[in-house]
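Table S4 entry, Nuclear transport factor 2 family protein.
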Amino acid sequence: MSNELVDRYIAAWNETDADARAKAVAELWTEDATYTDPLAEVAGHAGLAALIEGAQGMFPGFVFSPGEVYDAHHDIARFSWHLGPAGEEPVVVGFDVVQLAADGRIARVLGFLDKVPAA
C-alpha cells in the first residue's frame, strides 16, 4: 500500500456524492472486503458505502485527513487518520490496519479509535 492509496482511501471517506462514493469504494475495495472497528462490522461494497455515509451523517461538515503514522510491508499497511472541521484540531483520531488483495485493492480493514468525543 502506498501513500497514494492512503490518499484515495481518505478521499473515499470524504466523498459526499453517493454515485462517486460507490465508484470510489468499488475501485478501492474488493467485492467481498470487510471493515471492522469498535462501532461497525460491514462487508461488501454496499456495506462500506453505507458505513461511510453514516460516518458523514454523524459528523456533518467534518473531513477526514491522513495522520502522521504510515507503515507497510508485504500486503499489509497501517496508518493513522483524523476527522474534524477542516483546518482545526481533530475530534476523532483513528488507526487502520489494511490487508491488500492480489489485485492491489483492499480486502480487509481493522480500525481502532484512539480519540473519540465525550458522550
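The chain has one domain: 3-115.
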